[in-house]
Automatic annotation (TrEMBL), chain A:
One Pfam family it belongs to: DsrE
SUPFAM superfamilies: DsrEFH-like
Domain of life of the organism encoding this protein: Bacteria
InterPro entries assigned: DsrEFH-like, Sulphur_relay_DsrE/F-like
Protein name (database record): DsrE family protein
UniProtKB/TrEMBL annotation, chain B:
UniProt-listed Pfam families: DsrE
InterPro entries: DsrEFH-like, Sulphur_relay_DsrE/F-like
Lineage: superkingdom: Bacteria
Descriptive protein name: DsrE family protein
The organism's taxonomic lineage, starting at the top: Bacteria, Pseudomonadati, Pseudomonadota, Gammaproteobacteria, Cellvibrionales
UniProt source species: Sediminihaliea albiluteola
Length: 137, 126
């Protein structure tokens, strides 16, 4: 039986708008580094983090094309953390608030991310050693 | 497990969502048995004295049918067994202390917060 701690995160910010989003992913990575299993409940704008149709773009101001610019995409960050968790024998669960998904039309999500409700946040929190909520400001 | 939900942001997305998103989240979790205490602080202290529904949005010929009703949502939380409190000083600082607050809502002085935090298993600051 694993002795790893489990941490639950509830997050509300969307991609590409706030430094909180980057900080949130840094916290997830640091938690995996520390050997913790991760559970994420994405609420409101955060459901777009896992949207599978996010597309990288070039940037003429930077003078770089699509490939060279390698624009960061949060779906790739999630996938990278899923892979990191797998390599370390840890779990990485991600549930999007389903109604938040519907109202934004971001139903297509990357593999390993699911759809749920606040009941899942309560289940995640109840099963975790601790929970951190990061509300949007 | 008992969780203290602290709401400080007022009217966050209430126009689009037709509710306060954390009050909605709390009602949803309460429906599956979550033990919650909800604390209003900062600008969200206004929720404790706000009455009726918000003014409906209007854009061109489009008009909102169901604007948020914070009072009703807070009352539903209280009626479902959730303790709802507001920080007294947050009301005073905003000139709201003399307004009647929602039935069953508790007013807590700031000095009581430490013991409130100690009385729950987790504190979720939204």
């Amino acid at each position: 039986m694993s002795t790893a701690q489990t941490l639950t995160f509830a997050f509300m910010d969307p991609p590409f708008e706030s430094e909180r989003t980057t900080t949130f992913f840094r916290l997830l990575e640091a938690s995996l580094e520390a050997g913790a299993n991760i559970k994420v409940f994405a609420y409101e704008g955060a459901v777009a983090l896992a949207f599978s149709k996010q597309q990288a773009h070039g940037n003429s101001v930077h003078g770089r094309g699509v490939d060279e610019e390698a624009h960061p995409l949060s779906r790739q960050w999630i996938a990278a953390l899923q892979q990191k968790a797998k390599e370390r024998g840890l779990t990485f669960d991600w549930i999007n608030c389903g109604l938040c998904v519907d109202e934004r039309g971001v139903n297509e999500v990357i593999s390993g991310c699911g759809r749920g409700s606040p009941a899942d946040l309560w289940k995640f929190a109840s099963a975790a050693d601790n929970t951190l909520v990061i509300g949007t400001r | 497990m008992k969780v203290l939900q602290i709401v400080e942001q007022a009217f966050r997305a209430t126009g689009e969502e037709q509710d306060d998103t954390i009050l909605w989240l709390s009602r949803s979790m309460r429906a599956v048995g979550a033990e919650l205490h909800l604390l209003l602080n900062g600008n969200a202290a206004y929720y404790a004295v706000q009455q009726g529904h918000l003014p409906p949005l209007r854009f061109g010929h489009w008009q909102q049918s169901h604007p948020a009703n914070i009072e009703q949502d807070l009352q539903a939380l209280i009626d479902s067994g959730v303790t709802v409190s507001v920080v007294e000083e947050a009301l005073v600082e905003r000139g709201l202390a003399q307004k009647p607050s929602i039935k069953g809502l508790q007013r807590l002085p700031r000095k009581a917060l430490a013991s409130l935090y100690n009385s729950v298993d987790q504190v979720w600051q939204w």
